[in-house]
Amino acid sequence: MARTIQSLERAAAVLRLLAGGERRLGLSDIASALELPKGTAHGLLRTLQQEGFVEQDQATGKYQLGAELLRLGTSYLDVHELRARALVWADDLARSRGESVYLGVLHQQGVLIVHHVFRPDDSRQVLEVGAMQPLHSTALGKVLCSYDPVAHSEAMDTEREAFTQRTLTSSEDFEGVLDLTRARGWGADVEETWEGVASVAAPIHDRRRMPVGAVGVTGAVERLCEGETLRPELVAAVRDCARAVSRDLGATRF
User: Fold this and answer.
1) 225-226 vs 187-190, strand pairing mode
2) How far apart are the C-alpha atoms of 86 and 251, rounded to whole Å?
3) Tens digit of each residue's pLDDT (9 = 90 or more) over 161-219
């Protein structure tokens, strides 16, 4: 096995620590949390600060993530072909349906949100780009698991948590949902992940017909559903959006 570089591992640990919990931490807090000597922690922070990955508040002396990380993250998303191709179509979908739109890809046993279009109203909303959603209960996740063997394996090999009374956790039930998703070409989540929230998603394919992501609409159950069923016009709009993005990626058949 190839040897790892300890200093890089420690630097990554510092960044992860600053990314979670409190926004700003002092040197002692960081050293204690990572079980590092203060001198070592200070050296790591000083190097990260010089590179712009960490910033120090002059008033308190505490550290926080730096602007360079934001620049790198934004650069990654900007060059991500899937997101770039989906921008206009996702905006159109949100505007026409009046609901939030999410674009997700498989990442580390979950769904990584790479694009989020706010619901076009004046309500207070939180940008969820970079957030992770579960594979087994969300519409985006079910679509990925239905079409991507790797996503399917990830979902089957990990414990499927019951978020609500509607969440399906058994392997047999989950496989049945995936069969249904493939048969109709779209995935659903009606209060399986969050109470009072429903979602519908469809797969996005590239020129090789490989599944590269999923696009979906999420909103209140009373707006997205008729009784227990997702509104047919909403399902059709999401599928049309997925097809449009797929065509832009070079896919020719659906």
Assistant:
1) unpaired
2) 14
3) 999 999 999 999 999 999 999 999 999 999 999 999 999 999 998 887 888 899 999 99
Instruction: Give the per-residue pLDDT at 22.
Output: 62
Q: Determine whether 70 is exposed, middle or buried from the number of CB atoms within 10 Å of its CB (0-12, 13-18, 19+).
A: exposed
Tokens 């016009």 -> residue: 233
Report the alpha-carbon distance of residue 193 to residue 138 in Å, rounded: 6
CB 44 within 8 A of CB 10: yes
What is the value of pTM for the model shown? 0.69
Q: What ranges in the chain are assigned the alpha helix state H?
A: 6-19, 27-34, 38-50, 67-79, 81-97, 139-147, 149-157, 171-184, 221-224, 232-248
pLDDT in the model for residue 6 = 84
**Rounded Cα–Cα distance for residues 186 and 195 (Å):** 21
Euclidean distance between CA atoms 232 and 64, whole angstroms? 47
Query: What are the structure tokens assigned to 251, written together?
Result: 């896919």
Cα separation of 193 and 32, whole Å?
36
Q: Which amino acid is at 4?
A: T
- Name all contacts of 164-172 with Cβ < 8 Å and 24+ positions apart: 164/191, 164/192, 164/193, 164/194, 164/195, 166/190, 166/191, 166/192, 167/136, 167/137, 167/192, 167/193, 168/136, 168/137, 168/192, 169/136
